UniProtKB/TrEMBL annotation:
Coiled-coil features, chain-numbered ranges: none
Organism: Cohnella silvisoli
Name this protein carries in UniProt: Response regulator transcription factor
Domain OmpR/PhoB-type: 128-226
This protein's record includes keyword DNA-binding: yes
PROSITE patterns (UniProt xref): OMPR_PHOB, RESPONSE_REGULATORY
Keywords linked to the UniProt accession: DNA-binding, Phosphoprotein, Transcription, Transcription regulation, Two-component regulatory system
Family annotation (Gene3D superfamilies): 3.40.50.2300, 6.10.250.690, Winged helix-like DNA-binding domain superfamily/Winged helix DNA-binding domain
Entry keyword Cell cycle: no
Pfam families, per database record: Response_reg, Trans_reg_C
Domain Response regulatory: 4-118
Cited CDD domains: REC_OmpR_PrrA-like (cd17627), trans_reg_C (cd00383)
DNA-binding segment(s): 128-226
List of residues that carry 4-aspartylphosphate: 53
Length: 228
């Protein structure tokens, strides 16, 4: 699967340049023209890297960076800015950015930074293509689930739901995002279907007294993480 990169910048020329150049290198690209649209984009799909301009209308890059980290999104962030000031660089790093590039920049340097940041990504799968979180293992190709040594039989939808959580550990997933990914935009069934499936999934995962891994975040959604 191609790495997905989100470019959030109000400069149309830079956005067009990055879209062409990154796509040529084989990356999948999404763009947003300001911070507010960028947050919306990143709430709707998982991304492997965020290229984020600092000076933007509606919401600047500092605030976007802060909100992403508060939401538990751990994707690497590369900040772009016209300000070459130590204070600004330190501010960005303190807010959770991973790297910093001053405009105007050489395209070759940006590409090198992108490659370096993508190499640092934590790989959620092992060599066999299994997703692991604590004592939970998900074999996507074999459609099998293990909690420790215990095999768990899941329905197709339960498996897809757990797969989504395992792809986004420690990230709070909103109800709308989960419904769109698992049931699709055109779902018109019972309104509490997600709550029912989460309850069934928890029951199976905790059947032998194991601790809870799928937590409810009141007013926000659900998150895969250990208690405490």
């Amino acid at each position: 699967m191609r790495p997905h990169i989100a470019v959030i910048d109000d400069d149309e020329k830079i956005t067009a340049l990055l879209r062409r150049s990154l796509a040529f290198e084989g990356y999948e690209i999404s763009t947003a023209p300001d911070g507010a649209e960028g947050l919306k984009l990143l709430s709707q799909r998982q991304t492997d890297l965020v290229i984020l301009d600092v000076m933007m209308p509606k919401m600047d890059g500092w605030e976007v960076c802060r909100r992403l980290r508060e939401a538990g999104i751990t994707s690497p962030i590369l900040l772009l800015t016209a300000k070459d000031d130590v204070t600004d660089r330190v501010k960005g790093l303190d807010l959770g950015a991973d790297d910093y590039l001053v405009k105007p920049f050489a395209l070759e340097e940006l590409m090198a930074r992108v490659r370096a940041l993508l190499r640092r990504r934590p790989d959620k799968t092992d060599e066999a293509g299994h997703f692991r979180y604590e004592d939970l293992l998900l074999d996507v190709d074999g459609r099998e689930t293990l909690r420790g040594d215990r095999r768990i039989d899941l329905t197709a939808k339960e498996f897809d739901l757990l797969h989504l959580f395992m792809q986004n550990p420690k990230r709070v997933l909103s109800r709308d995002l989960i419904m769109e990914r698992i049931w699709g935009y055109d779902y018109s069934g019972e309104s509490n279907v997600l709550e029912v499936y989460v309850a069934m999934l928890r029951q199976k995962l905790e059947e032998s007294g194991e601790k809870r891994l799928i937590q409810t975040v009141r007013g926000a959604g659900y998150v895969l993480k250990g208690e405490g």
